[in-house]
């Protein structure tokens, strides 16, 4: 619609709508920030203000004192990085083969991706819980990684299939004509073209695992093993009476890695990375 | 389809290259070798547990029990049929899924149409619009609890400043709890829907728009005649997925209300989670999972049928 002329009032209306959206999107986040930097007396005030009058870092200090945040972050990092690396390593060949050899396999792969979106996790977690318990993998990050790998596979596969489809088959044909075998072609032609997509997919898988809550809640029992999202809920207390300042501070910290990764991915996301994924 | 990957199969250098389309349909060892690393975990940790879970629904499996687990046939399902609490939570799940998905779609569509225009700050807006997507659901829940907090929250303070009453305990009120969590659900899922729709919009041929405009079509006519037909497949797919995801959601509401007050926000997943991991009723909870899958499958079937029909129409 870029070439079309829009009248002045209509344009003003568009900006107004955009502003309204941005306010709606931003205000809870700004409030989280404001709460995180407020000293206790200001938090107790019955007339809360947007800007802290005496901003403080006390809430952050207190958050680390109250809950094992560093350890939880280390657990989250370990789980998310392992899950992302394994998921991509396993999904890339499958995505590649699926795209190049359509037919039954491709149908099965796409079907599984669709069906997996419909699983209510509870139907999967009960048997997994029983199996992992028998393998003594309950309350271990290793067990959680296993679950995360499988859980992030469908989306990783979906994304990678989109990227693999974008690799022109002609390039591979050219390599084959030049006498390169399949492995050579894969390594020297396909992989470099696929690399940006693989990185983006891995980052997505990282964020999903970093943010995941349900499986971690069920599988991790002791505070030393728990991941950040689970430990965050401990701030809420039994009756939901929370220490607002440290709660906000910890919650804000837990968001930083995902925000960072999404910042890196931003171009690809808005540039239409998901076009392939959504269009199928 | 290219014949090359087949032709360049290792160890077959001397074999004459097959013509396109004549590749043998049988299993290709090299392909299977590449597929196995993904297939194995999928079968062992995803398909396996799913089938195991369905089987559990027909047993009396419980946690920490000394007797052996027995088959009980459809007993769990019969009990479930009479479990009014479960059906109430099922109803809440449907209200929640529809209540989140529909406004979310409309808002996301508006935002996508806006972001598709050449507006100033468009890049900034796109970047910011993604923030909710990047946040852990637990953090989104915590954040909105801070907003909704009856005393220290910004929502009530804003309402007081605008002279709109003395505020409210939104998440604890019997009447307000479900609408309050629905607002959070809309907020949290909007970016993803927006991005999907935006991607769909960018596939709409610009020339069509321009031609329609030259023919004197107004904005609404152009939307009806050009934008929507191109966007429809993406819109249907994302709406079906959103309905499913929302119906099965857990973390957000767990953090916001934990199903309260008085079960008014107890989504089916929260119900099943409590049944399984608080009361240890694995078999019964698995039966709930089966009912949820069945409900969602209907939706998938419907959207697939539509899709197939759409393909035929073309």
TrEMBL record, chain A:
InterPro entries: BP-dep_ABC_trans_perm (IPR050901), MetI-like (IPR000515), MetI-like_sf (IPR035906). Pfam families: BPD_transp_1 (PF00528). Keywords: Cell membrane, Membrane, Transmembrane, Transmembrane helix, Transport. CDD domains: TM_PBP2. It is found in: Cell membrane. Residues 73-265 form the ABC transmembrane type-1 domain. The chain crosses the membrane at residues 12-33, 77-99, 111-132, 138-164, 185-210, 244-265. It is a multi-pass membrane protein. One of its GO terms (biological process) is transmembrane transport. One of its GO terms (cellular component) is plasma membrane. Belongs to the binding-protein-dependent transport system permease family. This is Carbohydrate ABC transporter permease. It comes from Streptomyces sp. R44.
TrEMBL record, chain B:
The lineage of its organism: Bacteria, Bacillati, Actinomycetota, Actinomycetes, Kitasatosporales. The keyword Transmembrane applies. Pfam families: BPD_transp_1 (PF00528). One of its GO terms (cellular component) is plasma membrane. Belongs to the binding-protein-dependent transport system permease family. Residues 1-23 are annotated as: Disordered. The chain crosses the membrane at residues 31-55, 94-115, 127-147, 167-188, 230-256, 282-305. It is a multi-pass membrane protein. Keywords: Cell membrane, Membrane, Transmembrane, Transmembrane helix, Transport. The keyword Amino-acid biosynthesis does not apply. It comes from Streptomyces sp. R44. Residues 90-303 form the ABC transmembrane type-1 domain. This is Carbohydrate ABC transporter permease. Residues 9-23 have a biased composition (Low complexity). Gene3D superfamilies: MetI-like (1.10.3720.10). One of its GO terms (biological process) is transmembrane transport. CDD domains: TM_PBP2. It is found in: Cell membrane. Its main location: membrane.
């Amino acid at each position: 619609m870029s070439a079309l002329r829009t009248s002045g009032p209509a344009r003003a209306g568009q900006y107004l709508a955009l502003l309204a959206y941005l306010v709606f999107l931003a205000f809870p986040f700004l409030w989280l920030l404001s709460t995180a930097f407020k000293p206790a007396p200001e938090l107790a005030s019955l007339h809360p203000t947007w800007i802290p009058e005496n901003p403080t870092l006390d809430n952050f200090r207190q958050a680390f004192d109250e809950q094992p945040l560093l350890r939880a972050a280390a657990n989250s990092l370990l789980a998310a990085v392992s899950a992302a690396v394994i998921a991509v390593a396993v999904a890339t060949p499958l995505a590649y083969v699926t795209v190049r050899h359509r037919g039954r396999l491709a149908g099965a792969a796409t079907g599984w991706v669709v069906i997996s979106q419909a699983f209510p996790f509870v139907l999967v977690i009960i048997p997994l819980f029983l199996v992992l318990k028998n393998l003594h993998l309950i309350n271990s990050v290793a067990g959680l990684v296993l679950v995360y790998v499988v859980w992030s596979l469908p989306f990783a596969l979906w994304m990678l299939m989109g990227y693999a489809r974008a690799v022109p088959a002609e390039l591979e044909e050219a390599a084959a004509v030049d006498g390169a075998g399949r492995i050579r072609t894969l390594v020297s032609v396909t992989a470099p073209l696929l690399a940006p997509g693989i990185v983006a997919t891995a980052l997505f898988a990282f964020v999903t695992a970093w943010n995941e809550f349900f499986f971690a809640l069920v599988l991790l029992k002791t505070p030393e093993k728990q991941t950040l999202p689970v430990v965050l809920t401990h701030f809420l207390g039994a009756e939901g009476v929370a220490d607002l300042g440290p709660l906000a501070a910890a919650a804000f910290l837990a968001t930083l890695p995902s925000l960072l990764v999404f910042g890196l991915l931003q171009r690809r996301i808005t540039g239409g990375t998901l076009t392939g994924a959504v269009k199928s | 389809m290219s014949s090359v990957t087949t032709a360049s199969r290792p160890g077959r250098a001397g074999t004459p290259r097959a013509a396109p389309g004549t590749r043998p349909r049988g299993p290709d060892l090299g392909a299977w070798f590449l597929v196995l690393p993904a297939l194995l975990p999928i079968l062992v940790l995803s398909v396996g547990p799913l089938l195991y879970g369905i089987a559990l629904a027909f047993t009396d499996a419980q946690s920490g029990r000394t007797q052996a687990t027995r088959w009980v046939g459809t007993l769990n399902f019969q009990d479930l049929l009479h479990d009014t609490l479960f059906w109430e939570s099922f109803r809440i799940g449907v209200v929640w899924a529809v209540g989140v998905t529909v406004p979310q779609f409309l808002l996301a569509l508006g935002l996508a149409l806006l972001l598709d225009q050449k507006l100033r700050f468009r890049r900034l807006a796109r970047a910011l619009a993604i923030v909710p997507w990047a946040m852990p659901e637990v953090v989104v829940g915590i954040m909105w609890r801070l907003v909704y907090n009856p005393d220290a929250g910004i929502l009530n303070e804003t309402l007081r400043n605008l002279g709109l009453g003395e505020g409210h305990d939104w998440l604890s009120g019997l009447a307000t709890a479900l609408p309050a969590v629905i607002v959070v659900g809309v907020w949290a899922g909007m970016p993803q829907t927006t991005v999907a729709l935006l991607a769909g919009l960018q596939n709409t041929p610009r020339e069509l728009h321009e031609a329609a405009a030259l023919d004197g079509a107004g904005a609404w006519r152009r939307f009806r005649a050009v934008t929507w037909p191109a966007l429809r497949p993406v819109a249907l797919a994302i709406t079906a997925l959103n309905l499913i995801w929302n119906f099965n959601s857990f973390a957000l509401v767990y953090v916001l209300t934990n199903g309260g007050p008085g079960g008014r926000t107890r989504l089916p997943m929260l119900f099943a989670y409590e049944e399984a991991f608080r009361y240890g009723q694995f078999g019964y909870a698995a039966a709930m999972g089966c009912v949820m899958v069945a409900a969602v499958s209907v939706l998938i079937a419907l959207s697939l049928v539509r899709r197939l029909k759409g393909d035929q129409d073309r």
